[in-house]
């Protein structure tokens, strides 16, 4: 790359720090990216590619805006456009009504089953479309993982909800707290299982690792476990504030005079608190780990311990896309 030119192969912000990753993912997960038209997306790709080829110069802000649109729309492994409802910038608008449905007080078994099925179906889609694509799952494997994830989430949610109802020895306040915790426990447990099921092939066959210049080195199951584990942690971290914070805010509001005088505000305020929680929680959780993950070659399988770079120097660190 010519001196003084922006390296658009790298994120704008330092990915070695949490603050840098947070700023990066705040842009990637911003729902406003969904407003970009096909012509704007095409123009963004043309601008970035032409700049990389040294054909044109452009203002830094224009370049970074174009790169943000590309990163939030196209998969980093395949370069293909991610289906709109399952881009990370779609995560908030796609999940608002689902979270609201799961937080309905005193739900029937039918209600629990329906919203857990919807939630895990959406999770499967997000996990599938945003996974590392260097190791693809077959349709049979995907279907099996989907059915297992949905079945487990429904079982966990119904089982916990029924247990809370029957725990008559507990105080009403304790049962109320536990009732609010049921959706989180179900989402966290089933969501974690969902990630591992939908990406199980990465655990069995490994994912592609690269050197610092992006040259492929082979597939590593150790890297696969790290990638999938980090995604699972991020999903649990996203769910915690989204499930608990809206309930706490609404519980406080229900005691106010304004609430008693304006009960019609319940639904819009509930949706507003859920939306705000999702908007805040998602980038904070995804930023816990870099998307381009790394690890010492010495911690991988033995065949990667003595790798050499093109110049003959030992490769001490490898890189891989952990997925989102």
What does this structure look like?
The chain has 324 residues and is mainly alpha-helical. 60% of the residues lie in helices and 6% in strands. It has 11 helices and 4 strands. The chain has helices at residues 18-28, 38-52, 60-73, 91-102, 109-129, 139-166, 172-198, 200-205, 221-253, 257-261, 266-286, and strands spanning 207-210, 216-220, 292-296, 317-321. The strands form 2 sheets. It has a two-stranded antiparallel ribbon. A hairpin with a 5-residue loop joins β1 (207-210) and β2. α5 (109-129) runs antiparallel to α6 (139-166). The longest helix is centred in the last third of the chain and has 33 residues, at 221-253. The two termini are 29 Å apart. The model has no long low-confidence stretch (mean pLDDT 83).
What attributes does this structure have?
324 residues, mainly alpha, single chain, two-stranded antiparallel ribbon, 11 helices
Q: How helix-rich are the residues, as a percent range?
A: 55-70%
Distinct helical segment count:
11
Helix-strand topology string: HHHHHHHHEEHHHEE
Count of DSSP strands? 4
Distance between the termini: 29 Å
- Strand order, main sheet: write it out: 1-2
Low-confidence stretches: none
Taken as a percent bin, the fraction of beta residues is 5-15%
Oligomer: single chain
- Work out the radius of gyration: 22 Å
Instruction: Tell me, rounded to a whole number, the average pLDDT.
Output: 83
Mass-distribution shape: globular
The helix/strand class is mainly alpha
Largest sheet: 2 strands, antiparallel
């Amino acid at each position: 790359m010519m001196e003084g030119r922006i390296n658009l192969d790298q994120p704008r912000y330092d990915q070695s720090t949490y603050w840098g990753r947070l700023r990066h993912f705040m842009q990637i997960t911003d729902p406003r990216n969904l407003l970009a038209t096909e012509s704007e997306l095409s123009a963004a790709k043309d601008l970035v590619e032409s700049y990389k080829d040294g054909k044109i110069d452009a203002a830094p802000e224009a370049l970074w805006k174009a790169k943000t649109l590309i990163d939030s729309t196209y998969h980093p492994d395949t370069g293909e456009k991610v289906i709109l409802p399952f881009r990370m910038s779609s995560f908030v608008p796609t999940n608002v009504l689902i979270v609201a449905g799961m937080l309905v007080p005193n739900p029937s078994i039918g209600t629990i089953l329906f919203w857990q099925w919807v939630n895990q179906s959406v999770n499967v889609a997000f996990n599938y479309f945003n996974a590392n694509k260097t190791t693809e799952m077959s349709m049979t494997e995907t279907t099996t993982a989907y059915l297992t994830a949905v079945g487990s989430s429904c079982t966990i949610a119904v089982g916990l909800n029924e247990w809370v109802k029957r725990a008559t020895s507990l105080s009403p306040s304790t049962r109320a707290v536990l009732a609010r915790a049921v959706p989180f426990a179900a989402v966290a447990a089933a969501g974690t299982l969902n990630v591992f099921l939908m990406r199980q092939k990465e655990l069995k066959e490994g994912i592609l690792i690269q050197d610092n210049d992006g040259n492929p080195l082979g597939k590593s199951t150790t890297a696969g476990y790290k990638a999938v584990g980090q995604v699972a942690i991020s999903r649990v971290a996203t769910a915690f504030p989204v499930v608990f914070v809206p309930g706490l805010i609404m519980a406080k509001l229900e005691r106010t005079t304004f609430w008693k005088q304006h009960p019609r505000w319940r639904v819009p305020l509930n949706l507003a608190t859920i939306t705000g929680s999702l908007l805040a929680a998602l980038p904070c959780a995804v930023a816990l780990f870099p998307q381009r993950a790394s690890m010492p070659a010495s911690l991988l399988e033995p065949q990667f311990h003595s790798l050499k770079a093109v110049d003959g120097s030992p490769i001490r660190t490898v890189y891989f896309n952990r997925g989102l």
